[in-house]
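Appendix B, example 12.
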Amino acid sequence: MEIPRHVAIILDGNGRWAKSRNMPRNYGHVKGAANVEVICRAADDLGIKYLTVYLFSTENWRRSQDEVKALMKLFHSYTRTAIRQARENNMRCRVLGKEDELDDTLRKNLRELVESSRNNTGLNFQLAINYGSRDEIVRAVRKLSEDVKTGRIGDPSQITEETISSYLDTADIPDPDLLIRTSGEMRLSNFLLYQNAYAEFVFPETLWPDFTVEEYDRALAVFGQRNRRFGGRTEEDAE
């Protein structure tokens, strides 16, 4: 089976999973966070090199204050757990999104997670938190414009796709080969819009807390059956 180098996942369905069990939404988020560890281990075992998960979007601040507060509390504990997991499993962790709207403790935890795992050589695990692709592109354009203004980039004709990619949060990370969105919803929700240009999409009906390693294998099998095309060429032609 062909294994994608980079898998991106939109972790959708935590709230509905909890509601179906007559439990509060936050219970679903806790179960969903626990499932991230399971899928990380599976990705590493399968030889996937990069895994990116969408934890919290720039739009999620619009949810109820109680839910946002509970999510931030969960992220505090989750990042501490992730620091340990990264050490034990040789994972390199990076964070996508803007951290200035997060509280000081969470920012500190995220920085520790990134710094403590910088030299690890196993799975590259990206956490998208307070991330929105349009916001990412705006921030990239601002930084690029400043470099043109200061002369670091002397001629706009020097700007290429690679230049733009280097200003994104995912600089030095290959684009996703496969995007999975659980719960059956079929939309990107402002996630890696630039990077997903040639990704294959799979939309399993399963809610995220129920997304098992077997479900993951099925999504990868679907990917392996696709005849990937790049601007009219197959992947084999592109090589």
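The chain has one domain: 6-132+175-226. Residues 6-132+175-226 form a domain with the Undecaprenyl pyrophosphate synthetase fold (CATH 3.40.1180.10).
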